[in-house]
Design goal:
Strand content: 15-25%
Oligomer: single chain
Number of helices: 26
Distance between the termini: 31 Å
Number of strands: 22
Bound molecules: NADPH dihydro-nicotinamide-adenine-dinucleotide phosphate
Largest sheet: 7 strands, mixed
């Protein structure tokens, strides 16, 4: 392979030592255990994401909408999804980064976060980029005297640059534009000379392909008149060796120790592995693929042309005629492991897909809106880090051990483990050493008996609920089956101030409670404070609701329970579950008029229950031999419990005999449903749900949206589907053994949101 000559370009100043305004540390413990919403919140609260980013990420469907996609390329049919994740702990030039990565391959994000954690102990990565020059090529053919053509072109350097710059005056104004020309002469296959003019353009913040192409086309007539030849190609070169990025890292060997290997052993094995990649193209190719795992994922996330980066990287790796590793690992005099990478990195922070794709804009903001130079350096550092993650595993325990986790994830997926318990089941499967479907089911059964919400020292949480059978009738003393859902409300109470302030940042709510209010939300807060002798005490109630509002999922009761728990925590009230339940029930009465108490009870207990309140609330835990394969579907209309309950009460008063007969029917179905649940007889349970929905419809609390969702669920394999909660909007619950994915997808395709507790498979490398 021909060697590539290059003059050493000037070093570009990176601004990467400046911290992102307001951004906190990129070290966020237990981030991987959080739900997607919690992760978004964690990054928002640390200043990495704006409120606009949060609403875009929390919105239904892909961040890239079809109408925008349709303008990006031709013949669009849809939007193809890939996961957008973030690697944490990253430090480059003394600055913390949360690194967005778009990639389908498992272990890349975790690998980078792990390396970020080790490397930040010794100051993280140093990175810099050279000036941002893109080369444009103009090929002149039909030339007999190439030496004369070459010197004529070089003589007219100023004219060529002036013409190129006149085509892009804005770029010159920005301090960029065409800087120089070079001329190369090659021999064609039959010996005829080929003269190629290189136009060297400083493209500033843009990758520059389009602008360089247009400059090349613009100067082509002048090149023809100077050389007397005919211009053929006029296009940039993707061998962007005048835009190099370099990253280095130093890791004391002690920080590499682990999994039975000393730090020295790990260091020496990494160096040996790296040495092989310097001399063996077969190994170098795989070594470089590992680097590109990180490079491409970040390039894609930031809207950059990863194909261009790939092409440049591999050509550069072969620049001296032999394909070699782009990075190198050595041991320094202090015994530290030192890594270095140098590679072409022509990226932009404007132009291309950067502007069009909202997800790319979010990624760039996550990175603190870097300059193109910062971004180039960061991408090189991410490539080097990804390389280290792979080498460390390969040089020690091998990459298959990581695959144990992937295997456990895939077994848990096949066993139909629900999202809420997925991570816990995987962890316990690995611990058990029995990575089998039956074991996954057994572990899930154990776990699913209790939904315990994550407790933090500075806040309290409570789960939502879904009613399987018996709503409305339960208000009239009949039984109902309720299940906890893995969605929570978190409340954090802080003493201080002279009023009661309520903060719900997701809803943009920040206001003071009216101390005189006796109804509504303020009235409920006042009554609860009165009951625990805190009326008149200044405090802030900060609420983080993760339960969709007015969807029949018990958001209001969970809020009351979380607030009561956190009042107890902050003021040392020592409230037990029964006391919390009592307070939450009073709150519910103020919100819903005549609630049965099932919502607050499930929220406190966090377990499936059979509940009855015929003057006195009683409940018993319900045993689920198998997790219920449920899918929830949400209408876009709020189901207002107070209104629906009042509507049923009016119907009951107007026609007690008929309405009570309906309640009796619902009660019978519920009692029989309890037995079906306890024996995992899903077909029978489904039939009961369908019948129960019929009665609820007869009570007048269904809507066309609810009916449509139920029909979609049944058409796609649900054995039972019904509205859940108060109705009048809100949501449906569908029992879908083996068809959860299909039902959820069909709901989404019809424009509704769904909550599918089934997971899609993860794949390994
Ligand atoms: P664009 O043409 O989309 O955008 C660059 C333009 O942004 C500049 O020309 C400039 O226009 C404007 N701009 C605004 N602010 C700045 C700034 N601070 N610094 C620099 N420019 C600024 O993109 P590129 O020219 O960068 O081309 C990249 C795209 O080209 C990618 O999508 C790539 O996929 C594609 N492409 C790649 C090819 C390849 O790699 N072989 C070939 C062809 C296309 P103005 O001066 O008018 O304001």
């Amino acid at each position: 392979m021909a060697s590539i000559s290059k003059s050493k370009p000037a070093r570009r100043q990176c601004n990467a030592s400046l911290p992102a305004p307001g951004a906190g540390s990129s070290r966020i413990p237990n981030f991987f255990r959080m739900s997607v919403t919690e992760r978004i919140d964690a990054l928002h609260s640390r200043g990495y994401l704006s409120s606009e980013d949060v609403s875009m990420l929390n919105g239904a469907g892909p961040t890239l909408r079809l109408p925008i996609a349709d303008k990006m390329i031709e013949n669009v049919l849809g939007v193809f999804g890939l996961p957008l994740g973030v690697a944490l702990n990253f430090m480059v030039n003394g600055r913390d980064y949360v690194v967005p990565l778009v990639v389908e391959e498992a272990s890349i994000v975790a690998g980078l976060s792990g390396v970020g954690r080790i490397t930040r102990l010794s100051g993280g990565f140093s990175a810099h980029a050279t000036e941002s020059i893109l080369i444009g090529q103009v090929q002149a053919t039909g030339i007999t005297n190439s030496a004369r053509a070459k010197s004529a072109l070089l003589d007219r350097r100023e004219d060529l640059l002036a013409l190129a710059n006149s085509l892009h005056p804005n770029m010159v104004e920005r301090g960029g534009g065409a800087r120089d020309v070079e001329v190369h002469v090659h021999a064609g296959p039959t010996g005829e000379p080929m003269v190629v003019l290189h136009l060297l353009v400083d493209t500033q913040e843009a990758m520059g392909a389009n602008l360089v192409n247009s400059m090349c086309e613009g100067i082509a007539p002048l090149v023809e008149s100077i050389t007397g030849g005919e211009v053929l190609l006029r296009i940039l070169s993707n061998l962007t060796d005048r835009s190099l990025a370099t990253a280095t890292v130093r890791i004391p060997h002690q920080n590499l120790a682990g999994k039975g290997y000393s730090g020295e052993q790990v260091r020496d094995r990494i160096v040996q592995a790296s040495d092989l990649a310097q001399v063996d193209p077969y190994r170098a190719t795989t070594h470089n693929k590992g680097i590109m795992n990180g490079v491409d994922a970040l390039a894609l996330a930031t809207g950059n042309d990863w194909r261009a980066i790939e092409a440049a990287a591999h050509a550069y790796a072969a620049r001296d005629g032999r394909y070699r590793a782009l990075s190198n690992w050595t041991r320094n005099a202090d015994g530290d492991l030192v890594g270095k990478i140098e590679m072409p990195m022509k990226v932009g922070t404007v132009g291309g897909a950067v502007k069009n794709n909202p997800a790319a804009r979010i990624s760039n903001r996550l990175l603190g809106s870097p300059t193109a130079a910062d971004l180039a350096g960061l991408i090189a550092a991410v490539g080097l880090a990804q390389n280290l993650a792979a080498l460390r595993a390969l040089a020690t325990y091998g990459i298959q051990q990581g695959h144990m986790t992937l295997h456990a994830r895939s077994v848990a997926t096949s066993a139909g483990v629900q999202d809420a318990q997925f991570e816990a089941v995987v962890e316990r499967l690995i611990e058990s050493g029995e990575i089998k479907e039956w074991k996954a089911k057994e572990i899930e059964r154990d776990l699913s008996r209790t939904i315990s919400m994550p407790e933090r020292a500075d806040c309290s949480s409570a789960c939502g609920k879904v009613i399987l059978l018996g709503e409305h009738a339960v208000v009239y003393g009949k039984p109902a089956i309720g299940l906890p859902v893995p969605l929570s409300v978190e409340a954090s109470v802080r003493k201080g101030g002279d009023r009661v302030r309520v903060l719900v940042s997701q809803w943009g709510l920040d206001r003071q409670v009216d101390p005189a209010a006796t109804d509504g939300f303020d009235g409920a807060v006042n009554a609860m404070l009165e009951s625990v002798d805190l009326r008149g005490v200044g405090m802030t109630l900060e609420v983080n609701p993760h339960i969709p509002r007015s969807m029949g999922l018990g958001g209001s009761a969970a809020l009351a329970v979380a607030v009561a728990r956190d009042l107890s925590r902050e003021f040392g009230l020592g409230l037990d579950d029964e006391a919390v339940n009592g307070l939450a029930f009073e709150w519910e009465k103020m919100s819903h008029g005549t609630p049965s108490g099932i919502d607050n009870t499930i929220s406190v207990v966090g377990k499936p229950i059979v509940f009855e309140n015929d003057g006195k609330a009683v409940f018993r835990e319900l045993y689920l031999p198998e997790p219920l394969p449920l899918v929830l579907g949400f209408t876009s209309r709020a189901g207002l419990t107070a209104r629906a309950v009042a509507q049923v009460r009016a119907a009951w008063k107007a026609n007690p005999a008929h309405v009570e007969a309906l309640f009796d029917q619902i009660a019978q179905l519920t009692r029989s449903g309890v037995k079906a649940v306890e024996a995992a007889r899903f077909d029978e349970l489904g039939r009961h749900m369908n019948l129960c929905h019929g009665y609820l419809n007869a009570l007048g609390v269904s809507t066309p949206d609810l009916e449509q969702l139920i029909q979609i669920a049944r058409d796609n394999g649900a054995v039972g589907a019904k509205l859940t909660g108060s109705g009048g909007g809100g949501s449906v619950v569908a029992l879908c053994p083996g068809t959860q994915d299909r039902v959820a997808a069909a709901m989404e395709n019809a424009g509704y949101q769904s909550l599918n507790l089934h997971r899609t498979p993860n794949r390994s490398e």
